[in-house]
Write a structure and sequence with these properties.
The chain is mainly beta. It has one helix and six strands; from the N terminus they run ββαββββ. It has one domain. The strands form two sheets. The protein has a four-stranded antiparallel sheet with strand order 1-2-3-6, with no helix packed on it. The protein has a two-stranded antiparallel ribbon with strand order 4-5. A hairpin with a 6-residue loop joins β1 and β2. The two termini are 24 Å apart.
């Protein structure tokens, strides 16, 4: 059984305050995340090994965007997101 079968997957945009490394201006940016929430029940036809993996599984989100464009009209240069983690576990 694959890990995908343990989770419901959605795409969400969350707002984060980030600073452009080129011009130094801080602004609010919408960052796209793939959110994987653990299902309430385990899928049918699971073996003992799959049951153990499902018990240890946690809801988490993975950052989809790696680069953003600066919000400053004079700068507008792309920059990499280095201050945000690429993986975050959800507490539910």
């Amino acid at each position: 059984m694959e890990e995908r079968e343990f989770f419901n997957e959605t795409v969400e945009q969350r707002t984060h305050s980030l600073t452009c490394p080129k011009c130094g201006q801080t602004a609010e940016y919408k960052v796209t995340w793939v959110v994987r929430r653990k299902r309430a029940q385990m899928p049918r036809g699971a073996s003992e090994r799959d049951r153990a993996r499902f018990a240890k599984a946690q809801s988490y989100m993975v950052r989809r965007d790696d680069k953003l464009q600066c919000a400053n009209v004079r700068c507008r240069k792309p920059f990499e997101i280095t201050t945000l983690q690429s993986l975050a576990f959800l507490m539910e």
